[in-house]
Design the sequence.
């Protein structure tokens, strides 16, 4: 009993320290974003504990940020990420369902190919792919921003592994009752797969929300710029408002954190099933 209690206390302390170490940089960004202009550097050389205390903080950086082009970039990011989730799931769901339930020659090869391609960093092919998109007149368009992220191999992997965990007897009984393949998918499989759908949706969202190189290559006009590009454009050759950059960085960081915290249970459950069956 003593060992168990001691181990619990030790793990709790270790977990608390890790949480503080992860949260502290984000807290520093928030505190720095409340300092007007570049005054946050006053407590950095040398480093002072005042750098982590929001005393005398202001919201001028946020008001200035939200009255500039960053708002349009934020809207574009939400729009592109939302469209990517919608159309990405429309592609990933039938692909994963076919790989999980249908028996056909080469199924393992197809699945292995999807996983291998998903492991290739997208930035490695971004530049030649952007040349193709320019030839297809898809540069500086929402379609050009959305299309490369739709066929997400990790989303297909998560859904396929979750579908494998659904009892085959349940799906066979549904098909015998006359639902058919798509009816079984719509009425039986998808209602049971909400955690996997949320997990795959979060992967699609994060792939677009944190993207920088591809939007930089494709979304060239201010009307098509995503939030990370709009944030980077706050730094020019003549002016650098680090306060607004800190505010924008905090906004871009806190939004996916809120979503992950809100869907933490479903997201964790979707990932915990990925290694159950091969």
Sequence:
């Amino acid at each position: 009993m003593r060992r168990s209690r001691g181990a619990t206390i030790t793990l709790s302390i270790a977990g608390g320290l890790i949480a503080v170490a992860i949260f502290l940089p984000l807290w520093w960004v928030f505190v720095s974003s409340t300092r007007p202009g570049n005054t946050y550097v006053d407590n950095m050389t040398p480093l002072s504990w005042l750098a982590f205390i929001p005393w005398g903080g202001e919201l001028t950086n946020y008001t200035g940020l939200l009255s500039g082009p960053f708002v349009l970039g934020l809207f574009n990011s939400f729009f592109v990420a939302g469209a990517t989730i919608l159309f990405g799931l429309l592609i990933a769901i039938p692909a994963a369902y076919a790989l999980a339930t249908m028996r056909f020659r080469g199924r393992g090869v197809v699945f292995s190919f999807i996983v291998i391609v998903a492991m290739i960093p997208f930035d490695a092919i971004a530049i030649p792919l952007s040349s193709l998109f320019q030839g297809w007149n898809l540069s500086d368009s929402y379609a050009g921003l959305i299309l490369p992220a739709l066929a997400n191999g990790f989303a297909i992997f998560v859904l396929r592994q979750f579908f494998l965990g659904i009892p085959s007897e349940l799906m066979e009984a549904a098909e015998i009752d006359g639902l058919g393949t798509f009816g079984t998918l719509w009425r039986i499989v998808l209602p049971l797969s909400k955690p996997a759908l949320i997990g795959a949706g979060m992967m699609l969202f994060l792939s677009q929300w944190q993207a920088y190189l591809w939007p930089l290559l494709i979304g060239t006009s201010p009307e098509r710029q995503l939030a990370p590009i709009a944030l980077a454009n706050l730094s020019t050759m003549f002016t650098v408002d680090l306060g607004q950059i800190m505010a924008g960085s905090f906004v871009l960081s806190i939004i996916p954190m809120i979503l992950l915290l809100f869907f933490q249970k479903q997201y964790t459950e979707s990932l915990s099933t990925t290694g159950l069956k091969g």
User: Anything to note?
Assistant: The CA atoms of residues 175 and 184 lie 6 Å apart. The chain has a mean pLDDT of 85. The chain is about 70% helix and 0% strand.
